[in-house]
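ERR on first pass: missing label on line 2. Operator R.T. fixed the label and resubmitted. Corrected input:
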Amino acid sequence: MYSSKLRIYTLATVVTLATAFGLAALYAPIEADQGFSQKIFYVHVPMAIVALGGFVYGGIEGLRYLRTRDPKHDLRSYTAIHMSVILGLGVLITGSIWAKVAWDVWFEWREATLVSFLIVFLLYATYQPLRFAILDPEKQARYAAVFAVTAGAFVPLNFMAVRLAEPFIHPRVLNNTTGGALPTEMKIPFYIALVGMTLLFITLCKLEMTHKLTRGRVKGLERRLDALRGETDDSTLPPRSAAPQVVA
Amino acid sequence: MLLAANFPDGSGYVLAAYLVFFALLLIYLGITVYRMLGLEKRLTTLSEELDRAEGRTAAPPLAEPVADTPKDKIL
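pass 2 clean. output:
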């Protein structure tokens, strides 16, 4: 039951994000170099961290599916990647807005951080078409899991490579090595926003999985009704869909 | 308007970034609600079909039968 505690998660997400954005607007100081536009940081960076974490989690669930062949892991992997792609789109758009105000360009192709995130996003943008292209549910889940594991392993490697590379203009705000460490007044809203974004990710994943399971139950009822009428036909494959075929 | 007038430069970009976040969230939630409504409609149709298949009409559940009470007890 993915719907359990959904109400609590929703409430916690709303409270945490509202607190974080309120603190970002009213409590966090205005950054000396970038000015007011630095406030984008409190939505852009937590979204990026959670999106990348979601891709890795999708890979872990993909690996679990390959080991156990339990369809619930396929569903979790699919949902995590689905949500991370949506958050990734948000990261790219908010990042572009920040780039425009900070550097007067919408995208900087020489900056490894930006380009690497775009590559990761485009890589995962192929996940849904890959699933959609495979009709057999078992094969679809297996291929998608292999993709999730491979791409999920690529994400931290890519992140480390970017960190090791010489930064061009993108700020490194969460470490002391480049002198970009955050003051406490900025850290508090940032970490609350990070918790809020993680809660949002979990809530949306639970909501999506609840929807998928409910749809599966409806399909199960349809099958039972067909059996009652004597219209069962097990030879046909289910209709083409990118989402996992959950039939309860 | 007063609040916006007190905002420093670049506030439009900040507002746009936060709006993008909330717009994405709203679009996703809108699509989910739409799909949930479709499921609810399908579920209603299915229960009606099931009732018909079982040879029953889709009628509201009857009230609990009231036990016969001896008249002498009422009096």
